Amino acid sequence: MNHNETFETVESLEAELVSLTESLWETPELGLHETESAELLSSVLRDAGFDVTEGIGGMPTAFSATYGDGEPHVGILGEYDALPGLSQTVSSSREPVEAGAPGHGCGHNLFGVAGVGAALATKRAIDEGRAEGTVTFFGCPAEEILVGKVFMARDGAFDDLDAALTWHPSHLSAPFMAQTLAMNSVEYTFHGESAHAAASPQSGRSALDAVELLNTGSEFMREHVSDDARIHYTIPDGGGAPNVVPAEATAWFYVRAPTRDEVDRITDWLDDVAEGAALMTQTTVSRRFHTGCYDYVANHALSDTLLENMRLAGPIPYTDEDREFAAELQETLSAETIEARTAKLSEERREAARSSVLYPDAQPSYDVGTVLNGSTDVGDVSWITPTAQFWAASWPVGTPSHTWQAVAANGSFGSKAAVYAAKVLAATTLDLFSDDALVAAAREEFEASVPGEYECALPEGTEPPFHLTL
């Protein structure tokens, strides 16, 4: 399909899209608290004539914006939450805007804006009679704590889609084809008795002792789970002064594995360990389930179409000035970091990537058949409807996400990747509108590759964890 008009439409929106990326970057907000960010993006679509629904899944910052009529119905996923402690100026040295404040270290200031741009370009094609179908942009909060799309899925937000599309900033451009890990996020809070730790320790029952026993027990579980499984924890509350026996203490766990079944088995075991820790310390334990997401299942038919459109739209038009700043950022990375980030590439592609500080040309997927040792709530969507996503080169080659270097890039030349991603998402949406065979092929593959019915992992009554400021 010829997408020249689609690309021209996105280019006509470029100034507005870049301004949006800058506004989100300048006001970074943490997950479930993205009030200004969600309102900014939803208002753009509302003003353009989209039907906006807010508060999906019990989350004030979750919304959908729909335009068009009939089938197919294509969803475009967007995110806009930032990360704690990553405040950073557009500079090649570590220099926070405000020490300890959030920053867009994962590029979500670019992520959501690109989806808005794609939705606007699709609307124009519908209005001009070049396309028929329905497009919905989903404003998805709190991806960093793997909450937003899970609670939206429980609310049925994605049930009527024929396909879902999304992207993510990265240091290279390619379809994202790896399986990700399913995950549970659970807090265990132990309740004991306070006492003077020196004068009358026998009067106390230490909740912190119980937390430490739980954590020790989890270490002994590691030998007996699959190699790809992950169990990690923090202690958000370990008590106060050392001379007071802690009456309350909390351990927060992430349990990850390639399948939901294994995640649930490990979590059940961890529940037993927590009960055992409580028995050993004569404390009690309460469990708070925050969220649970599925593994991601890539759709090859949709991913192949994304790659075609990435090639049609690219390369991302970085300038010499962009490359100069990118080179300054790249110099702050260790050789080991760059090596680790490019290790999955073929030798030919690795050499090409290393020779270019920015590598904006689209390439075939480099992670087909692999398991990415991380999680995404896009996984839930991929179990509900055919789903595809892609990486777009927004950062210097070798740059990890969740770093100050990524924050600096996202506030600078990364905005060009958002415009590029908007082109790819819009073009692929219009391909789905015009090609019944593509829709059918994506559905057929989905039914063959997704190993079961989707059942939201959230226990009944689970509410969004607004208390988490991560």
UniProtKB/TrEMBL annotation:
Q: Which GO terms describe its cellular component?
A: cytoplasm
Q: Provide an example Pfam family for this protein.
A: M20_dimer
Transmembrane regions: none
Query: Which BP terms from GO are recorded?
Result: folic acid catabolic process
A GO MF term: para-aminobenzoyl-glutamate hydrolase activity
Tell me the ranges covered by the Peptidase M20 dimerisation domain, including all copies. 185-275
Protein's UniProt name: Amidohydrolase
